[in-house]
Amino acid sequence: xxxxxxxxxxxxxxxxxxxxxxxxxxxxxxxxxxxxxxxxxxxxxxxxxxxxxxxxxxxxxxxxxxxxxxxxxxxxxxxxxxxxxxxxxxxxxxxxxxxxxxxxxxxxxxxxxxxxxxxxxxxxxxxxxxxxxxxxxxxxxxxxxxxxxxxxxxxxxxxxxxxxxxxxxxxxxxxxxxxxxxxxxxxxxxxxxxxxxxxxxxxxx
Length: 205
Description:
The protein is an alpha/beta fold and 205 residues long. It has one domain (3-203): Rossmann fold (3-Layer(aba) Sandwich). Helices cover 45% and strands 20% of the residues. The protein has 7 helices and 7 strands, in the order βαβαβαβααβαββα. It has helices at 15-27, 42-54, 68-73, 87-96, 104-122, 146-165, 184-195, and strands at 3-9, 31-35, 60-63, 81-85, 129-135, 168-173, 176-181. Strands 3-2-4-5-1-6-7 form a 7-stranded mixed β-sheet, sandwiched between helices. Helix 1 packs across helix 7 (184-195). The two termini are 29 Å apart.
């Protein structure tokens, strides 16, 4: 059974950089990177390009707006690490596809996506690490629109489900990892990841 790690943080907190660094430590070049971003405009495409340039060229990249668990299971290679970046955009993709953000169908679809992601991580070989990145959105002001509030609620619940299932959870604050769940080994791994995060944190989402 594979190991599951959740990295949370706000915008520009260093969470993506820490995930990349941790995957490098655990998997070297044998890493699957699952990107959920949808390049809807030039600015978003530039961010995607920056992230891609920072990843080692030998990593395998799969783009999946949704059905991330299926995307991982469909890969035929054997990977030491899998990085999913990020759940924030995954939930956003699911939300914008629906006319009513508060419909039960939307909540059920998000729950199903998270369940399948956890299952995919658990079915990886026992030596594999799946690192999932997500935004912590519950510490700011309440969104002013119904769509924004629905997004906050759905992502918050998704984060709770992932955190409950994860072996280790870390909150990135200004590039510094705060271990929320996991033992001493997890803390050491995150400390090592953070040590090299500063150089790439500028494009972290």
